[in-house]
Fold these 3 entries.
Entry 1:
Amino acid sequence: MRNLIKLGEPEILKNNNQQWLQEYVSDKQSSYKKYKYRNADIKTRLKEETGFKCIYCESKIGHNTPGDIEHKVPSSKDINQHFNWLNLTIACTECNRRKNDYYVIGSEFLDPYRDNVESLLEHHGPLAYWKSNNDRAEISIRILKLNSLSRQELVERKITKMEEFSNLIERFLSQSNQMLKKLLWMQVEEMTNNKSEYSAMLQAVIEKKGITITST
């Protein structure tokens, strides 16, 4: 997970959220009324603020899933949050399925928009773990199984990305041509940008190797 900043509410949601909520509350059986938050403008804005990736596992949306609009506080727990912009984000189908309608006050999932998630988690290879004595971080990781090899497809993609990045680092360190070294460094910066896929893991690769990289 990476720390995120919430973008401005799309006009269509700002102008309609209260009416949509009233319509949905009055007819909860209507899929049309329930899923109006799937509007293209709303979903695109959510993708933009997350870097087009799942806020939990950091897989790029569209890589293996179109992405699901995620309610941080599930509507089953508080229906008034159903169209609340601050409550909406985007997750891959698998993370959204695993989280389901989990919500316990005081033991909530980590929120990358409000919590400094980068200081609460650590990465060991393709697996993510919580730092000691942080119950919410542990709950989030355990429910999503981000510390488990059981999420085979995710683990394999992360290993591939990590190998690509490790090779890039080795090339950068051994490169004598200054122009190539500069170009390689630019790629390192791009891959560790908070909007890039699995960038939290890639930053950990550098830290665990004890490498200090200085562009030239």
Note: Strands lie at 68-71, 88-91, 121-124, 127-130.
Entry 2:
Amino acid sequence: MKRILITGNMAGAWAARLAKPQYIPTYPITPQTEVIETLESWKANGELLDSNVHQLESEHSVLSAAIAASATGSRTYTATSSQGLLLMHEMLYIASGNRLPIVMNNISRGVSAPITLWSDHQDFLGCRDTGWILLHAKNVQEVFDFTLMAFKIAENQNILLPVMVNMDGYELSYTEEIVELPDQSDINNFLGVYQSDHNISPERKLCVGAPVMAEHYSNFRIQQFKAMENSRDVIRQVFEAYGKLTGRFYGEVDFLPAKSKTEIVLVTQGSMSTTTKYVAKKHDNVGVLNLPLIRPLPYEKIRACLSGANIVAVLDRNVAPGKGGIMISEIKDVMYHNYCHPRVLEFIVGLGGVPQTEEKINLLINKIKNEHYNLNDIEFNDVI
């Protein structure tokens, strides 16, 4: 293991470097730009010999090129953020529908208007129905680990779906932390050589993405759905294998139970999870459920973690006007199938990068304990 001090952006770049993708299409957008600057500098210095790094004219073109490269059997990586991810949106469905194991880092940034360069999760969570496997890192080490494991998950012959690994813009993308990097030889053995059984080549006449008759379209969608369901076991297996390699074992959920009886569970995503866990440890009856895996949603694990709570408070770092937060709907759907129905509260927090400090989380916990909230209202915790 090598230990280095790097940002979240550089952690994504390091994971890509060690995975040795043949093709890396790029286009800059804040706060993702450091990812491609790092890769471009390595390429210019002769440190990225196995990869073709190619800057295109837009994010739509980036994912289009990634799709074409992956269809030829090339291991493919890229990165984007916010408005760039939105410009790719049409192509997200094409990548997953054609069963192409592309790996992409998204660096979350609030979607304009108004323009912000800071993070919330609207861009990333807007992709939950595109057929991509979605992972969300809470620290820089997880950015590296999840991105590296994404290649092994995506390229499994029973899966062959693209994987997006998200990190919070600025809070992680430009924050430096100590990260452990495995040796290149260990990564080579862990990932192996990607060999596609359905790639295009001059010797292999194969049509990808052709129009189909209506009755055949359903068959493709069913296969895609089954692949996502198959990924549950594959993700567990990859997490286990990576833990044996590095000593860092991950789960489909990241649950911190309360010291005594769990009365309140805070549900979080991304970088605010570390602060929330730190604060929760000071309260005997408060647990934290961090969600590193958004698709496929690990509903059984989530249900098991929340079943013993009296109150579940979902901290949504996003807002869908006319509905509320995105993740509270997911949590309510999970808990509906359980005989135990805790009260589920919603707090909108951290929009546009507003820091989730210890003080704010303590105030939120005390508000819940003292019942200073309205069950019929969505609470914008950074505003009122």
Note: The chain is about 40% helix and 20% strand.
Entry 3:
Amino acid sequence: MEDQALLKYLEEFISIERRERFLDILEERTKFITVAIEDVFQLHNTSAVIRSCEVFGIQTAHVIEGRFGKRLDKNIAMGAQQWVDVERYENTKSCISNLRREGYQIVATTPYNDSCLLEEFEIDKKSALFFGTEKDGLSEEAMQEADGFLKIPMVGFTDSLNISVSVAIILQHLSTKLKKQGIPWQLSDSEKLEKRLDWTKKSIKSLDEILSRYSG
């Protein structure tokens, strides 16, 4: 109730159009699918992945940064990091453990083994899609821990795609397929409220001053 009261107060400081935009976007958001990227080296690739998550309605992205440190370029992400929840990890083990606790199956994306083709993949369980480094792909640990494997069919001489391109292709296909199925894929009411409050706060320039007036 307190969050709802605070939201009602804060919404007075943003436009009606922005409020309605938040509601419309949240109706398309999901946590049924999530993305995990493992030790990506190029800054622009991590940022482009976050941007694709935002565009295709994926609310949470998981970034493993054990080898190369923080890999998010705000300029390339073009503000997407404001609207997507980015969870960071020091290693693959902790990321996988966290996702399993949240009920996700671990799906490794790789073009090099007998993986399930993208169009044949059934998105009937909460799925965490793992993507690896530009050069080496996913680590052996991620591959061994995977519950399933997924690949994009390719018919040319080149046998791999840039990670950001792979993420965009897979998310577009699976998010479209998910929304045609009769399973509860949307955010819960409490999750929607949480994000409305978060996004509204991010939309107000003098937030601290306004919050102090509210609490006072």
Note: The radius of gyration is 19 Å.
